[in-house]
Design brief:
It is a single chain. By secondary structure, the chain is mainly alpha-helical. The protein has two domains: 1-34; 40-94, no CATH class. The chain is 56% helix and 4% strand. It has helices at 4-29, 60-79, 88-96; strands at residues 44-45, 58-59. The radius of gyration is 20 Å and the shape is extended. The relative contact order is 0.09.
């Protein structure tokens, strides 16, 4: 039997997969290819000036995207430390009257 935290993790995972699938469908609907037109999928492309740049799984810009994510999270954590999204567990407890 799943605990509530495992169930919410599964739900959030499915929501994330749904968002990614929706984004991929929108990109495809706009006429963009889902993979590189070269026909191969590579883990790394090191040539910044190649036609495959930003078309494969990772490239030189991947690291700056990750770094910016950490920086934006850190700034938000410093600016608004008590701001958080409501959790399903908290809503459930308040609705049930903390049984």
């Amino acid at each position: 039997m799943k605990t509530s935290s495992q169930a919410s993790f599964t739900v959030y995972g499915l929501i994330a997969v749904g968002f990614i699938a929706a984004q991929a469908l929108l990109v495809y609907a706009q006429g963009h290819p889902l993979i590189c037109t070269c026909g191969t999928i590579r883990l790394w492309v090191g040539d910044v000036s190649s036609a495959e740049n930003s078309q494969q799984l990772t490239d030189w810009y991947t690291y700056t995207h990750i770094l910016h994510g950490f920086l934006f999270y850190s700034v938000l954590w410093l600016v608004a430390p008590r701001t958080s999204a409501p959790r399903a567990r908290d809503r459930t407890r308040s609705e049930l009257g903390d049984r």
